[in-house]
Structures are given as structure tokens and as C-alpha cells.
Amino acid sequence: MKKLVTAFALCAAISAMAAVESQVVGYQTIDIPSGFSAATATFVTVGGDGTTSVLADIAANANFEGESIQLLSSDGSGNVLLIAYYYAGFGWYDGDNNDVNSTAITKGEAFIVSTGVTGAQLTFKGDVRATAFSIAIPSGFSLLGNSVPKSLTLGAVTANASFEGESIQLISSTDGLGSVELIAYYYAGFGWYDGDNNDVNTTPLAAATTFVVSTGVTGAELTFPAAL
User: What span, in angstroms and rounded, lies between the C-alpha atoms of 68 and 83?
Assistant: First the structure.
């Protein structure tokens, strides 16, 4: 069933379960809860430049047949750029039945999932980006995530000077409601703290877990550690 939802009905998917085949090429399957969720691809396209994956690198199980994801704009507007539906044996198609399997997803950027089914899963495959990488944060609204194919702690994610005192909102990976589990503020030399000044650097950040950034600053970046 095709569904259209607003880009601001957010959540985050994902009790992530890694199954990496080797140090270079692997796959990872995540559970998609019924309701609103979000995810980010944890591998990059084999033979690419290490900065993107494509929709063809994402497969789904039978429960996700005919369900869709929504790719958002990278410009901070939060606009939906593409709604893509999955069909086994064919991959991803838009609402006009155009093949969109070659559509690129920048590493670190997340997408929305809205489904009423249970037992759905997405599987990411491709190369492991072994080196650290940074995600540019536009002024406005962004949906990002941990696109390293392993669990991290929040303290492993750092930010540049432009992001000083700015925050991210970690979204529930299981409730399908888009609930905010934690708002964390970044301070250079100290890392992440919640609104009550509690140190939250040890907060788990599972692979493919997503978070919202809403900021009015320009030039901000978040940096994720090397995967290997």
C-alpha cells in the first residue's frame, strides 16, 4: 500500500543487527517497527568514492513488499525529494513506476519509513567506509544517523566550532511514534550533555540509529569515527 507522509513525522527505526561478512564488504539487517521510523544506510556502494550509497544497495524482506521510504532534501528545508516503493526482484520505483534504484544517498543522511505492517526489515549491503567522515549540517532541519555499521557511543561523534552549543535529538528506535529519547548538546573538549548538564557521552548510538538536527547556524559539521 502506498503511503504519503510529511517529512516532519519523524522517528527512528531500528534495533540494528549487524552481520558483516568481511572487513571490506558486508551486509546489515535492521528491524522496521510499525508506524513512523527512520534509518540510514550503513555501507557505501562497492567501487564508489566512499561518500554515497544508492537505493539498489538496500533490499527488504517480504513484509516490506510495496512499502516505501522518503528521501529528504539536503538543504535544511526538510522537503521530501523522493518517495520510493520496494518490489522484490525489481528494487525501488517511484509513484509513477519509474526505476529509481540508482538514486544516491549521501553517507550519514537518513530517510523516513512509514508503514502499518509488522515484521518488516531492511538490509543494507556494500563496502565499509573504513576512515572517519564528516557530515555537513545545513542551517535548518536535517535527519541524520549513525551510518557506521557498528554501535558507537555518542561521545565518539564530535563536532566543529560552528556546532558549539547546538543539539541533536535522538529518536526512539522501537516505538514507531517518533518519540525523542534524548536531546544532547555539544561542547568542545567535553562532548555531549543533556539539558540538565548531565554527561551523556556514554549513550549508545546503534548502527543505523537516526537523529534530528535543527539549527540556525551555518558551516556546522559532525564527524563520525572510522569503522575499522
Answer: 7
Our CA dihedral for 134, 140, 145, 147, rounded to 10 degrees, sits at -40
Residue 73: DSSP 8-state: P
Query: Which single residue is written with the C-alpha cell 509488522?
Result: 118
Q: What is the pLDDT of residues 2-19, one digit of tens each?
A: 333 333 333 322 233 333
User: Of 168, 134, 167, 169, nearest to 148 (Cα)?
Assistant: 134
Name residues whose C-beta falls within 8 Å of residue 49's C-beta, 6 or more positions apart in sequence: none
pLDDT at 175 over 70: yes
Enter the pTM of the model. Answer: 0.86
Output the CATH code of domain 133-224: 2.60.120
Please state the domain extents for the chain: 16-127, 133-224
